[in-house]
Amino acid sequence: MESENRRHFERYPAGHLKVLIKSIRAEDGSWVKGFLNSVDFNRYGIGLETEHCFPIGDHVALVIRTDDSTLTEISGIVCNRNKCDEGYRCGVRFNLGTTDDDLYLIEERAAAIVH
Q1: Nearest-5° angle of CA 28, CA 34, CA 39?
Q2: Domain membership flag for residue 68
Q3: pTM (2 decimals)?
């Protein structure tokens, strides 16, 4: 039997992106460079590998740069995390700042209950 794919939105490889990430809640607030060995993204979020163990539910700031130096800054919430060879693989849901961003609000509320 074929396993059901939990991903509902097309994902794109992101090895060409350079990402900085930091916790908005952490007191030290230092930037961590994301290792992009197996990163992917879609319009709702990004997966990245990092040596830092961001807790699920952590609010983070990201700076994303492309090869042509296009730059964006966006915030998000760590919605999942798994141990991997290089540290941790984190899934970050973007806070798009729209009133209909129900997925973000649901994950933010769930993370608040868990943590």
Answers
A1: 145
A2: yes
A3: 0.76
